[in-house]
Each structure stands twice: as structure tokens, then as C-alpha cells.
């Protein structure tokens, strides 16, 4: 098996470990009293103790603090609200590399077809990532079209995070219809995310194949 195949297999393993379990997003509103690595990492530790099998967290220092307390996979991201681009979930290559250094096993990126800062296309962004790292990449999408492109470019899993948050309207949240469509059409894992607030909604997502 060549090096590419080995690295791809290792990335697949990251998502296989999450299949059928609950990944909890541990975040806090920016600038609030609880927006600290100490609080976010304690929150992550608490939900892992309660049965979560993975954590999604925003911010380099938050990811670093969480990795000191838990041994489950961490999906890291950086939110940057820039005047030059509508993309705010991990829009820069440096964000990806710093999240990897902080200990994130998986990095979530905006995988919509909107331009990143400096006019960088999603296709070019994935090229930049793969030139620097074999880290597992979770593609946050808004549509089946974005998901199919992300799969073709080598993303390792798809999340419905941005459904309803771009110019492409969603019928309702959570968008279970999109989850089911992605499961039917993709060959990579699908993570149901966005608008899940009730136990029944989570159960429905698992039922359609997330």
C-alpha cells in the first residue's frame, strides 16, 4: 500500500470511530464570560463523561485545552468573520495547520462554492491543504452539489452544517431530507449537523443513515 493509500485509510478510520455516535459542539458566544478555554474544555469533558464520542470546537486554544482533558476525536474549526469573504468556517490554510498542531484529529472547513479570502476557490483551497497535510477534512456543505464536489476533491466526510445558512434555502432545520439525499448519493460518511435540538431529531438523523 502506497503512502497516499495509508494516509487515506487513517483518515477514514477517524470517521469510522464516530459512526453511530453523538458528536457534541462545545462553543460559546464570542466575548461572553464563558468564552474561555477553561470553560469550553470542561464542557467537553462533561459531555464525554455523559457518552459523547466526539467533540466539535471552535478556536485554536480551545482545541488545545480540550485535547488535554479528553481522548475522543476532536473536530476543530476557526471562525473568522471577514469583510472580504462570506466564508467564515476555517477560511485560511494557516487555520487548518494551526488546528492540526493544536491536536485536532479532524478539521471542519466551509465546503460551499463561495470564494475564500483573496479570491481562493474551494478547489484551490483543497489543493493547498493537501500540499501541506494529510489531516482528515470534514466538509461543511449547504447542498448536494457542494457535497459531491467536496467528495471529488478528497474531503473525508460531509456535514450538513451550512444548510440554510447560505443563499441556498433549506425547507426547514434540521434538514433531514438533505441528510438522506447525501447518504444515498455519497460514498463517504455523512454527519447530520445544524438545528438538532431534540432527541427525536437526532434519532431521525440516525434512521436515515447519518
Topology:
Elements: H1 3-16, E1 23-26, H2 37-49, E2 54-58, H3 60-67, E3 74-77, H4 93-102, E4 106-110, H5 122-132, E5 136-140, H6 144-152, E6 157-159, H7 176-185, E7 190-191, H8 199-207
Parallel strand pairs: 1-2, 2-3, 3-4, 4-5, 5-6, 6-7
Helix pairs in contact: 2-3, 3-4
Describe the structure.
The structure is a single chain. By secondary structure, the chain is of the alpha/beta class. It has one domain (3-207): TIM Barrel (Alpha-Beta Barrel). It is 40% helix and 13% strand. The protein has a 7-stranded parallel β-sheet with strand order 1-2-3-4-5-6-7. Helix 2 (37-49) crosses helix 3 and helix 3 packs parallel to helix 4. The longest helix has 14 residues, at 3-16. The protein is globular and about 40 Å long. The two termini are 29 Å apart. The mean pLDDT is 93. It catalyses: an N-acyl-D-glucosamine 6-phosphate = an N-acyl-D-mannosamine 6-phosphate. GO terms for molecular function: N-acylglucosamine-6-phosphate 2-epimerase activity. This is N-acylglucosamine-6-phosphate 2-epimerase. Pathway: Amino-sugar metabolism; N-acetylneuraminate degradation; D-fructose 6-phosphate from N-acetylneuraminate: step 3/5. One of its GO terms (cellular component) is cytosol.
Amino acid at each position: 500500500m502506497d503512502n497516499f493509500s495509508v494516509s487515506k485509510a487513517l483518515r477514514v478510520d477517524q470517521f469510522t470511530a464516530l459512526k453511530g455516535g453523538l458528536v457534541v459542539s462545545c462553543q460559546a458566544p464570542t466575548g461572553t464570560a464563558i468564552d474561555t478555554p477553561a470553560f469550553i474544555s470542561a464542557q467537553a469533558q462533561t459531555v464525554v463523561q455523559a457518552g459523547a464520542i466526539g467533540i466539535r470546537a471552535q478556536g485554536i486554544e480551545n482545541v488545545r485545552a480540550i485535547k488535554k482533558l479528553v481522548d475522543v476525536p476532536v473536530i476543530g474549526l476557526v471562525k473568522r468573520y471577514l469583510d472580504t469573504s462570506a466564508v467564515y468556517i476555517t477560511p485560511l490554510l494557516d487555520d487548518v495547520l494551526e488546528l492540526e498542531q493544536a491536536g485536532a484529529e479532524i478539521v471542519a472547513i466551509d465546503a460551499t462554492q463561495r470564494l475564500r479570502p483573496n479570491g481562493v476557490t474551494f478547489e484551490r483551497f483543497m489543493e493547498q491543504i493537501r500540499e501541506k497535510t494529510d489531516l482528515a477534512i470534514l466538509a461543511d456543505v449547504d447542498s448536494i452539489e457542494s457535497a459531491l464536489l467536496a467528495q471529488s476533491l478528497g474531503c473525508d466526510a460531509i456535514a450538513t452544517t451550512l444548510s440554510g445558512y447560505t443563499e441556498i434555502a433549506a425547507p426547514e432545520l434540521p434538514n433531514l431530507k438533505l441528510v438522506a439525499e447525501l447518504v444515498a448519493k455519497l460514498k463517504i460518511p455523512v454527519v447530520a449537523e445544524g438545528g438538532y435540538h431534540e432527541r427525536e431529531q437526532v434519532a431521525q438523523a440516525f434512521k436515515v443513515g447519518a
